[in-house]
Specification:
alpha+beta; 193 residues; elongated; two-stranded antiparallel sheet; single chain
Length: 193
């Protein structure tokens, strides 16, 4: 693995700036990789890692920098729980660890560096220096990943009986004997005009 400083440079490029959320995300992912014993998650270990992120904020971009997991590679899964947390799954050894940021770390940053008025700068400094045990909670968990969720899955495509669009990765429902895409089944985020 790279050093935190090396990851910070990559995160600033990937995200467009460096902030406390980025530092926290880098540390969170590095902690998870260390617990799983994955030394090169974006390189030689990349095919054995699937990561679930629970928030769509700065930390998620940082997590992808460390892990190499991407939506387009189907190795990054997003669950919108609004929590600063991620679960790292070693699919080769069937182990998973969920790391969540402690809310108390913000107060601890204030206690450590009260002389720094800017909250982001204060938290960035603290998040670089605080031990993992002060920043994060961890839990070993079981994650059942069905075959269609794995990177590289090549399932049969189906056509939606209502809109006619192709459906991949088993993302459909059955209505009687008809195959319906999730959007037509009522889960669409948009409204046709």
């Amino acid at each position: 693995m790279k050093t935190l400083a090396e990851y910070e440079e990559l995160a600033a490029i990937a995200h467009g700036h460096l902030c406390a959320g980025q530092i926290l995300g880098l540390r969170l992912a590095m902690f998870g990789m260390n617990l799983l014993g994955l030394e090169d998650p974006a390189g030689k270990d990349r095919k054995r890692l699937v990561t679930y992120v629970e928030i769509d904020r700065c930390a998620t971009d940082a997590i992808t920098v460390v892990t190499g997991c991407r939506l387009g590679k189907r190795a990054l899964k997003f669950r919108d729980f609004g929590k600063m947390a991620a679960t790292f799954c070693d699919v080769k050894d069937h182990r998973a660890v969920r790391i969540s940021a402690r809310e108390s770390s913000k107060q601890r940053a204030n206690e450590l560096f009260p002389e720094i008025a800017d909250r982001n700068t204060q938290q960035m400094r603290a998040y670089r220096e605080m031990p993992d045990e002060e920043l994060f909670d961890r839990a070993w968990v079981r994650v059942s990943i069905p075959p269609e969720e794995f990177p590289g899955y090549k399932g049969q495509k189906r056509s939606c009986a209502e809109c006619g669009e192709a459906i991949s990765f088993e993302r459909f429902q059955k209505r009687g004997d008809q195959t319906i895409c999730l959007a037509c089944a009522g889960a669409r985020y948009y409204e046709p005009l």
